[in-house]
Amino acid sequence: MSSCTYLGTKTANVKFSPLFFQMDIEWENMSEENRLDLMKNNLLTKRQQNEEKFLNGLMTSFEKNDFQVAASADLNHQERLQQAQLKLAEKSIILAHRYNPLLKQYVANKEQIIMNEKFAIIRSKRSSLDEMAAKYKICFNSWINAKDDVHIKVSQPENQLGKISVLDAFTLIFYSVITNRRQPGDNMLQLLISGLNSCGKTMIFENPLLEVAHMVTTEKGVSRFNFEAKSTMLLHDVNLMNLVKSSDCDRLKAIARGEPVPTKTHGNVQTVPSVFTIITSNQHLFTHTFLTVEKSKNSLAKVYKSDIKPSANVHPGDIAAIQARFMEAFVRSRPKIDEKYIPKSENFERKHAIVGLFEQVLDILSKHEKNDFKSQYYYLYPIGGLCKHLHLMPDDSNKKLRDNLFSLMERYGLDDEQVENCSKDMNIVLKSE
Length: 433
What we know:
Layout: E1 4-6, H1 18-29, H2 32-43, H3 46-65, H4 73-91, H5 93-117, H6 129-144, E2 150-153, H7 157-161, H8 166-179, E3 190-195, H9 201-209, E4 213-215, E5 232-235, H10 241-245, H11 249-256, E6 261-265, E7 268-272, E8 276-281, E9 288-289, E10 303-304, H12 316-323, E11 326-331, H13 350-356, H14 358-366, H15 377-388, H16 395-411, H17 416-425, E12 430-432
Helix pairs in contact: 4-5, 6-13, 8-15, 9-13, 14-15, 14-16, 15-17
């Protein structure tokens, strides 16, 4: 990596005319409603504005004189639409044919407004980012370090993880998922969180992912794998037999490997890009062995055999292939987490996980070397994610963290292009020497 220094944040030197500033000041002084009205009038032609006035006038007259409210909300909507269509047809068959789609949307919007006005809306006071991030860090670490309750396993630790521990690998993988877009051929294990219900799977892992994940159902049908811009495939509380038995078996294996996969959409075929995969289930994929017996009075078990077994419909090779692609965290009993750190009136979000685990991920990377990892992406993803979200960290620690990130780039031998990309994410301009 070539020697370089950072010069600070980017600036622009652009000259504007006085008229530009006058327009800008007028715009800034406008209310939001006035801004929307101005933009609407600029976008709509005179004819379109007249059409809108006509529909508004028609519906106002209709609501006043012709419509009788029904007892049922569903009937109310149907009858309002039917009677409005008849009213429009009385005025003009041609206009009824032309404006029927607009009328449907108008009635639907009107119904939504009426329904919204029937209910009170009150929200709890939101906690600060720093407060929620601190709580998230405690909940996450209490969960993954509960050795009597949670067991994390991969099929071949040395071949798949190298010299990093299972716990560190789990943390790095999860941080990579919430901060990065997956690259083909990254050779990174995906996450499966299984076992007991109501044990923190949704609170700690699924809620922070919802912002960037596409929730895939196991029901048959097209467009299930239409990810659009989402970076992660989330399978929530699924039957693991679907991974090894259903018609989706080969498709799911390929997605877990990060390979592009063609899938059906409505009247089309679309390729699923490389996406991360996280699965939650009540069943478990591996056989897990704990050091102590279960806390439950009804069980003295230490070994929990896999729920997925070969059969006439399940080939052993499919089971082995799925096991080779996942790291599984199996929960046999609820991990003990202090109640004061569990959110009571809000959920953990993606930014809480990013900030809460930021320095922990930095520490994990700082204690390892490049050769400790079986795949470069186990350190490239986290470094990229840390750089991209440095702006979320407190200002007083920003410079120190930035210096540490540059040290990590040097430690792991990132090339000039990688360093430049990371620097752009931190809004830093580099000067080559």
